[in-house]
Amino acid sequence: MPAETERRIRVIVAKPGLDGHDRGAKVIARALRDAGMEVIYTGLRQTPEQIVSAALQEDADVIGLSILSGAHTTIVPKLMALLKENKMEDVMVVLGGIIPDADVAAMKQIGVTGVFQPGSSLESIVQFIRSNVRQSEPRASAPSEAEG
Asked: Which of 1, 61, 111, 144 has the most beta carbons within 10 angstroms of its beta carbon?
């Protein structure tokens, strides 16, 4: 079997908080998959801890958050802090959903690379990720409980 010269971009698509609508997240996940990316959809009502854990386990290059509830001002800072605590600042975070214009700059200031509001095309999201992702060597997983 020939070795792959380039690893596919790995994307975690997550619906944090109490949001119950995931159709948009599933459409995005399908578009990214169709564009050749490896997509892991974590499902509804994920905590920042669950999302960061999935990103670590899956060696993700990108975390895509879909938030319609307005909870981005609470959830995203917590997620960014967890990424930093886990030395995962190289994981690109993108945010989509109902994000008021007034909040976009604040989201970018805390480390979100891209914010996609209603009306963003699937192609623009795919191209943004391809242009901005920083693929790195697989990171070491957290030590197992058996070690130590």
From this structure: 61
